[in-house]
Amino acid sequence: MPKNVFVQGAIPPEKISNSIAKHQSKTSIGGHSIFLGQVRADDVDGKTVVAIEYTAYEEMAEKELGKIREKAFSKYDLTCAHIYHSLGTVKAGELCFFVFTSSAHRKAAREANRFLVDEIKEKVPIFGKEIFEDESHQWKVNQ
Amino acid sequence: MTLTIKYFGLIAEKTGTKEEIITLDGEGWNLEDIKEYFFSKYELSDNQSLQIAVNQSLGPSGSLKDGDEIAFLPPFAGG
Lengths: 143, 79
Prior knowledge:
The complex is a heterodimer. By secondary structure, chain A is of the alpha+beta class.
Protein backbone atom coordinates (compact mmCIF):
# COMPACT_ATOMS: atom_id res chain seq x y z
CA MET A 1 0.00 0.00 0.00
CA PRO A 2 1.28 3.48 -0.81
CA LYS A 3 1.78 5.51 2.32
CA ASN A 4 1.16 9.21 2.69
CA VAL A 5 0.36 9.94 -0.93
CA PHE A 6 -1.51 13.05 0.08
CA VAL A 7 0.46 16.12 1.04
CA GLN A 8 -1.24 19.16 2.57
CA GLY A 9 -0.66 22.16 0.29
CA ALA A 10 1.98 22.46 -2.43
CA ILE A 11 4.75 19.88 -2.83
CA PRO A 12 7.99 21.72 -1.97
CA PRO A 13 10.75 21.39 -4.61
CA GLU A 14 13.06 20.17 -1.81
CA LYS A 15 10.91 17.04 -1.58
CA ILE A 16 12.01 16.11 -5.09
CA SER A 17 15.72 16.55 -4.37
CA ASN A 18 15.38 14.71 -1.05
CA SER A 19 13.64 11.83 -2.82
CA ILE A 20 16.44 11.61 -5.36
CA ALA A 21 19.05 11.68 -2.61
CA LYS A 22 17.33 8.81 -0.77
CA HIS A 23 17.77 6.58 -3.80
CA GLN A 24 21.55 6.93 -4.01
CA SER A 25 21.99 3.92 -1.73
CA LYS A 26 19.89 1.75 -4.08
CA THR A 27 22.64 0.93 -6.53
CA SER A 28 20.67 -1.57 -8.63
CA ILE A 29 18.81 1.43 -10.08
CA GLY A 30 20.02 2.64 -13.47
CA GLY A 31 17.33 5.18 -14.31
CA HIS A 32 14.70 7.35 -12.67
CA SER A 33 11.72 8.99 -14.28
CA ILE A 34 10.02 11.94 -12.67
CA PHE A 35 6.73 13.59 -13.49
CA LEU A 36 5.86 16.88 -11.83
CA GLY A 37 2.41 18.39 -12.14
CA GLN A 38 2.26 22.16 -11.70
CA VAL A 39 -0.80 24.39 -11.28
CA ARG A 40 -1.32 26.39 -14.46
CA ALA A 41 -2.64 29.95 -14.45
CA ASP A 42 -5.32 29.22 -17.04
CA ASP A 43 -7.21 32.08 -18.58
CA VAL A 44 -10.98 31.54 -18.61
CA ASP A 45 -13.19 34.27 -20.07
CA GLY A 46 -10.74 36.98 -19.08
CA LYS A 47 -10.17 35.66 -15.55
CA THR A 48 -6.98 33.99 -14.40
CA VAL A 49 -6.71 30.91 -12.21
CA VAL A 50 -4.63 31.82 -9.16
CA ALA A 51 -4.87 28.52 -7.28
CA ILE A 52 -6.49 25.10 -7.19
CA GLU A 53 -8.08 23.75 -4.05
CA TYR A 54 -7.86 19.95 -4.09
CA THR A 55 -10.12 17.57 -2.22
CA ALA A 56 -10.38 13.79 -2.48
CA TYR A 57 -12.56 10.88 -1.51
CA GLU A 58 -9.61 9.62 0.47
CA GLU A 59 -10.79 6.10 1.38
CA MET A 60 -11.55 5.32 -2.26
CA ALA A 61 -8.45 7.14 -3.52
CA GLU A 62 -6.23 4.94 -1.32
CA LYS A 63 -7.85 1.78 -2.64
CA GLU A 64 -7.51 2.91 -6.25
CA LEU A 65 -3.91 4.01 -5.78
CA GLY A 66 -3.12 0.61 -4.29
CA LYS A 67 -4.59 -1.15 -7.34
CA ILE A 68 -2.79 1.14 -9.81
CA ARG A 69 0.53 0.65 -8.02
CA GLU A 70 0.10 -3.10 -8.04
CA LYS A 71 -0.67 -3.05 -11.76
CA ALA A 72 2.42 -0.91 -12.46
CA PHE A 73 4.66 -3.35 -10.59
CA SER A 74 3.22 -6.34 -12.44
CA LYS A 75 3.48 -4.66 -15.87
CA TYR A 76 6.96 -3.10 -15.55
CA ASP A 77 10.24 -4.16 -14.06
CA LEU A 78 10.33 -1.46 -11.39
CA THR A 79 12.63 -1.11 -8.44
CA CYS A 80 10.37 1.40 -6.73
CA ALA A 81 7.62 3.93 -7.28
CA HIS A 82 6.58 6.92 -5.20
CA ILE A 83 3.44 8.99 -5.64
CA TYR A 84 2.52 12.29 -3.99
CA HIS A 85 -0.49 14.50 -4.61
CA SER A 86 -1.56 17.72 -2.94
CA LEU A 87 -4.73 18.35 -0.99
CA GLY A 88 -5.88 21.83 -0.05
CA THR A 89 -4.76 25.00 -1.80
CA VAL A 90 -1.92 25.04 -4.32
CA LYS A 91 -1.07 28.35 -5.98
CA ALA A 92 -0.37 28.73 -9.71
CA GLY A 93 3.24 27.83 -10.37
CA GLU A 94 3.47 25.46 -7.42
CA LEU A 95 3.71 21.68 -7.64
CA CYS A 96 0.66 19.50 -6.96
CA PHE A 97 1.66 16.05 -8.27
CA PHE A 98 4.93 14.10 -8.08
CA VAL A 99 5.40 10.62 -9.54
CA PHE A 100 8.84 9.06 -9.19
CA THR A 101 9.67 5.69 -10.75
CA SER A 102 13.00 3.89 -10.70
CA SER A 103 14.25 0.83 -12.49
CA ALA A 104 17.44 -0.88 -13.61
CA HIS A 105 16.85 0.57 -17.09
CA ARG A 106 15.27 3.73 -18.49
CA LYS A 107 12.50 2.11 -20.51
CA ALA A 108 10.62 0.58 -17.59
CA ALA A 109 11.07 3.71 -15.46
CA ARG A 110 9.67 5.95 -18.19
CA GLU A 111 6.80 3.72 -19.26
CA ALA A 112 5.71 2.99 -15.71
CA ASN A 113 5.79 6.68 -14.90
CA ARG A 114 3.52 7.50 -17.80
CA PHE A 115 1.21 4.63 -16.87
CA LEU A 116 0.93 5.79 -13.26
CA VAL A 117 0.28 9.44 -14.16
CA ASP A 118 -2.41 8.55 -16.72
CA GLU A 119 -4.15 6.00 -14.49
CA ILE A 120 -4.15 8.31 -11.47
CA LYS A 121 -5.65 11.16 -13.46
CA GLU A 122 -8.36 8.88 -14.80
CA LYS A 123 -9.23 6.66 -11.84
CA VAL A 124 -8.43 8.35 -8.55
CA PRO A 125 -11.25 10.46 -7.07
CA ILE A 126 -9.48 13.78 -6.65
CA PHE A 127 -11.38 17.00 -7.28
CA GLY A 128 -10.03 20.45 -8.09
CA LYS A 129 -11.67 23.80 -7.54
CA GLU A 130 -9.99 26.43 -9.70
CA ILE A 131 -9.97 29.75 -7.88
CA PHE A 132 -9.83 33.00 -9.84
CA GLU A 133 -8.31 36.28 -8.69
CA ASP A 134 -11.78 37.70 -7.89
CA GLU A 135 -12.42 34.67 -5.62
CA SER A 136 -14.99 33.15 -7.97
CA HIS A 137 -14.33 29.56 -9.02
CA GLN A 138 -15.00 26.75 -11.44
CA TRP A 139 -14.49 22.98 -11.15
CA LYS A 140 -11.54 21.49 -12.97
CA VAL A 141 -12.17 18.63 -15.40
CA ASN A 142 -9.22 16.57 -16.66
CA GLN A 143 -8.68 16.70 -20.44
CA MET B 1 -31.72 -0.03 6.39
CA THR B 2 -29.28 2.78 6.95
CA LEU B 3 -27.02 4.23 4.25
CA THR B 4 -24.28 6.84 4.36
CA ILE B 5 -24.38 9.19 1.39
CA LYS B 6 -21.30 11.26 0.53
CA TYR B 7 -20.92 14.15 -1.88
CA PHE B 8 -17.77 15.62 -3.36
CA GLY B 9 -16.63 18.68 -5.28
CA LEU B 10 -19.25 20.25 -7.50
CA ILE B 11 -21.91 17.84 -6.18
CA ALA B 12 -21.22 18.81 -2.54
CA GLU B 13 -21.54 22.42 -3.59
CA LYS B 14 -24.98 21.71 -5.06
CA THR B 15 -26.23 19.64 -2.12
CA GLY B 16 -24.81 22.03 0.47
CA THR B 17 -23.61 19.06 2.51
CA LYS B 18 -20.75 16.55 2.34
CA GLU B 19 -22.46 13.68 4.03
CA GLU B 20 -25.85 12.51 5.21
CA ILE B 21 -27.18 9.35 6.76
CA ILE B 22 -30.54 8.07 5.62
CA THR B 23 -32.73 5.34 6.99
CA LEU B 24 -35.08 3.57 4.59
CA ASP B 25 -37.97 1.30 5.45
CA GLY B 26 -37.45 -2.36 4.68
CA GLU B 27 -34.88 -4.04 2.47
CA GLY B 28 -34.54 -4.50 -1.28
CA TRP B 29 -33.60 -0.95 -2.18
CA ASN B 30 -31.30 -0.71 -5.13
CA LEU B 31 -28.84 1.87 -6.39
CA GLU B 32 -31.23 3.10 -9.08
CA ASP B 33 -33.84 4.00 -6.43
CA ILE B 34 -31.28 5.97 -4.45
CA LYS B 35 -29.94 7.70 -7.54
CA GLU B 36 -33.43 8.71 -8.62
CA TYR B 37 -34.31 10.00 -5.17
CA PHE B 38 -31.20 12.14 -4.75
CA PHE B 39 -31.12 13.34 -8.35
CA SER B 40 -34.60 14.73 -7.86
CA LYS B 41 -33.92 16.05 -4.34
CA TYR B 42 -30.85 18.04 -5.43
CA GLU B 43 -31.69 18.61 -9.10
CA LEU B 44 -28.71 16.62 -10.31
CA SER B 45 -28.50 15.12 -13.75
CA ASP B 46 -26.44 12.62 -15.68
CA ASN B 47 -25.05 15.31 -17.95
CA GLN B 48 -22.89 16.43 -15.05
CA SER B 49 -20.74 13.31 -15.74
CA LEU B 50 -21.51 12.09 -12.30
CA GLN B 51 -20.35 8.67 -11.14
CA ILE B 52 -21.65 6.74 -8.16
CA ALA B 53 -19.45 4.56 -5.98
CA VAL B 54 -20.76 1.95 -3.55
CA ASN B 55 -18.35 1.14 -0.73
CA GLN B 56 -15.53 2.94 -2.56
CA SER B 57 -15.98 1.04 -5.84
CA LEU B 58 -17.42 2.23 -9.12
CA GLY B 59 -19.61 0.11 -11.26
CA PRO B 60 -21.66 -2.08 -8.96
CA SER B 61 -25.41 -1.96 -9.32
CA GLY B 62 -28.28 -3.88 -7.90
CA SER B 63 -29.53 -4.14 -4.37
CA LEU B 64 -27.97 -2.36 -1.47
CA LYS B 65 -27.42 -3.59 2.05
CA ASP B 66 -27.55 -2.03 5.46
CA GLY B 67 -24.49 0.10 6.19
CA ASP B 68 -23.47 0.69 2.57
CA GLU B 69 -21.60 3.89 1.75
CA ILE B 70 -22.71 5.61 -1.44
CA ALA B 71 -20.68 8.43 -2.94
CA PHE B 72 -21.74 10.86 -5.65
CA LEU B 73 -18.61 11.81 -7.56
CA PRO B 74 -18.12 14.61 -10.10
CA PRO B 75 -15.41 14.28 -12.81
CA PHE B 76 -11.95 13.47 -11.44
CA ALA B 77 -9.37 16.23 -11.66
CA GLY B 78 -6.17 14.90 -10.13
CA GLY B 79 -2.75 15.93 -11.39
